[in-house]
Amino acid sequence: MNRHLLSAGDLTRDDAELVLRTAEELRSLADRPIKKLPALRGRTVVNLFFEDSTRTRISFEAAAKRLSADVINFAAKGSSLSKGESLKDTALTLEAMGADAIVVRHSASGAPHRLAHTGWTRSSVINAGDGTHEHPTQALLDAFTMWRHLAPGGAGKSGGGLDGRRIAVVGDVLHSRVARSNALLLRTLGAEVTLVAPPTLLPVGVEGWDVETSYDLDSVLPKADAVMMLRVQRERMSDAYFPTVREYSRRYGLDSRRMGLLQEHALVMHPGPMVRGMEITADVADSSRSVIVEQVTNGVAVRMAVLYLLLAGSSEPTLTTSDPGASE
Amino acid sequence: MTSYLIKNARPYGGEPTDVLVRDGVVAELGASLTPEEGTEVVDAGGAVLLPGLVDLHTHLREPGREDAETVDTGTRAAAQGGFTAVHAMANTDPVADTAGVVEQVWRLGREAGHCDVYPVGAVTVGLAGEQLAELGAMADSAARVRVFSDDGKCVSDAVLMRRALEYVKAFDGVIAQHAQEPRLTEGAQMNEGDLSGRLGLRGWPAVAEEAIIARDCLLTAHVGSRLHVCHLSTAGSVDLVRWAKSNGWNVTAEVTPHHLLLTDDLAATYDPIFKVNPPLRTAADVEAVRAGLADGTIDVVATDHAPHPHEDKDCEWSAAAFGMLGLETALSVVQHTMVDTGLLTWEQVADRMSVRPAEIGRVADHGRPIAVGEPANLVVFDASVTRVVDPTETASLSRNNPYAGRELPGRVVATFLRGRPTVLDGKVL
Amino acid sequence: MHAQPAKPVPPPDAGDTAVGATPPEEPAGRVVLDARDISRALTRIAHEILERNKGAADLVLLGIPTGGVPLARRVAERIAIVEERPVAVGSLDVTMYRDDLRMRPPRALLPTEIPAGGIDDKVVVLVDDVLFSGRTIRAALDAMNDVGRPRAVRLAVLVDRGHRDLPIRADFVGKNLPTALDETVRVRLGEIDGADDVTISGGAA
Prior knowledge:
The complex is a heterotrimer of chains A (about 325), B (about 425) and C (about 200). With about 325 residues, chain A is of the alpha/beta class. Chain A starts with 12 loop residues before the first helix and ends in a 17-residue tail after the last helix. Chain A has 2 domains: about 10-135 and about 295-310, 3-Layer(aba) Sandwich (Rossmann fold), CATH 3.40.50.1370; about 135-290, 3-Layer(aba) Sandwich (Rossmann fold), CATH 3.40.50. Chain A is about 35% helix and about 15% strand. In chain A, helix 1 (about 15-25) crosses helix 12 (about 290-310) and helix 5 (about 135-150) crosses helix 6. Chain B is of the alpha/beta class. Chain B has 2 domains: about 5-50 and about 375-429, Urease, subunit C, domain 1, CATH 2.30.40.10; about 50-360, Metal-dependent hydrolases (TIM Barrel), CATH 3.20.20. In chain C, helix 1 packs across helix 2 (about 70-85). Chain C has a single domain (about 35-180), classed as Rossmann fold (3-Layer(aba) Sandwich), CATH 3.40.50. Chain C is built from 4 helices and 9 strands; from the N terminus they run E-E-H-E-H-E-E-H-E-E-E-H-E. Chains in contact: A-B, A-C. The interface of A and C includes residues 32, 67 and 324 of A.
């Protein structure tokens, strides 16, 4: 793996599988009496959040603490950030404090990329969501959740990826960093991805993404092994991306009738926070098909895996396949 | 006034000759001229001799942003790049929307003395797009403004644009339009295309430029006025201007050096040094604007030299300012993209970078032929050398040079403004 | 599996441990234990464990991945045959507890499988293939600390090659193998490598 995790596209298939396998081992930690491992003792992880996201921050915080890292939370929200200087100043401050990793959430696409490549800091940079660009750890936890349920051989034990599995990602793809990261990672893992949205909410150039696209949710659902519903913000309506919430829900919302179109084993997913009644109805979100709560649990394990793989070893370039090798 | 004998220069890249410059004019042309007593000799060593370059589109930032550039530093950069005249854009603070401000800029240019400064007047008060500025007062001022532009902002209101086009006919002015449909480009960060979708940066679609150009061409024809299209950047825009010209309408257009060379894939670095408005476009667009410049559809190269202090570029992409430097690299970029590729001769370069911009700007003393009796506004350009661009080696106050680290051909050896050298041995005097 | 001469602290590129480093195909070296020797040694260890523990009550065998895991299973099978009842067996990954974690590129984690009854108040026998510096066992003791509190911990190894860095000794040893520091001991097991043997190679030749 690289020293940074900026884009799901940075991960090779071997990298991605290594993260998933490592997460699988770390997930069992939740069942142990002492939910803590010493791997990052003495390392400092900074959660640098320029944008509110309590659930992502808590997930990273839990992950870092379970690996015994020191965690510093740095919430730098506020309107003074319209000028970007503060990203640099903040980075310099964190550098002076000796941060080993910076987990950054920022409203500007590419801000983690800048942090990693400007020389402002030597820390590893982990993208925890940047603008409408990417959210790679969310994609990893989504893939991990799918892998545990859908991987050939089951329970994620068989290794391998998600070859041939069909995943539908539905909703505001245009503004979704989750959709971008998922499309990249799921393709890397061998899954077939279909993005479903009204034409106004598909990005220009999506033809080049190596995914299928569809405007018709009903035709996609019967073939899907998992369907991921993206959050749709009501404000999009005022920008004329769709006429009304009611029309959006009718055409692209997941309700119990549509859930009936899914195969028996198909999963219902949502990266959260959900807008119940908009893109997903409450009964669907709470149904037995839904793995939305499990996604949260898996988020901690996946973020532990990422932190471990980026930080635990020396800063030598790391290789990408797994061969445990050493006994002494 | 000292006389200068420029030895062994090649006018328009042609046969080598000597040029005697005396009393502000070209006094003698011919092989093996002998210097008189007190004449300084400048050995051009076979370098290309062109009429001094004229920029229709420069941001000198003064008054208001003297931390980015001043009239003095900006015109030094201009001289360094071979320019003898620049048009200073109106988006200063205060905006150049009154006779007072344009006269101030004009006077600062004269005091600095590195090249002639022709202030551009704002079309609307405060560039706000609501009310016409006092265009006539600026035209009648000491600055004799003929080019009017809200550059940085588009005169998007069709009625206002029509009135402006009509109004400037009274003093032979021209409206230089920054063609950008504002609603289609709200929050826009880069060219809308495959890459903007991937990078999650809000797209600036070509249609937002082309829709305004099409409308303005029709308005210009309708009212019988004169339109100049600033920094045209797309293949579609080239087609529209070609169409307007084929109808005989009085439409001219400019392209920037960066749109002749750089493409939108540079945005993948998220390095705001490549953030500019209009944005860098695709390779196909670059191809089209080069062809347009070659066949004369695009009349001129204009730099859109846009200095910004370090902190406005040393940040995340969406927070960064739009714009890049251009004066000191323009001729090199044109050599690289147009001359070395066989698309333009040096004589055509002189046309696109001196003759036509002077005509469009109604600047009498510039863009003149290299001939006896003509004003000695000249640039000696050694096209045989190459250099790696170092952003710290600049006369500008700013460093936002998108060519940093690139190898570019050519070097300005000397620039003469009315017979007086502003650059000698490659150094600003 | 092979234990490299790993002391003092090896350079980060010591070769055998990087995630993804393919171990070079080594020359066969001198065979010091063949399949039959290994089998006999494990049988003896099984009996010694039972003797020391006075039966299989409360016994938990934990193999240290990767080589220790099949060895623990084989010993457990032998105990089960003698005692006519299954004995708890699992695995304990020590990767995150290694004292050289930071000196090398990150390693993939290996399975930790604690038997259903846990290890509290049990007699845990750690099983590994080669005992060398003792650092792996130190890590295993720490790892176990986070899993539970056994009544006692014992150590069984197939090969003890000496050169300890820490005050650690094995309770049950298949073979004591005097080695030079720069020699490499390699244990191959059928479950992992397709064949059983222990070879020794390298050294000042």
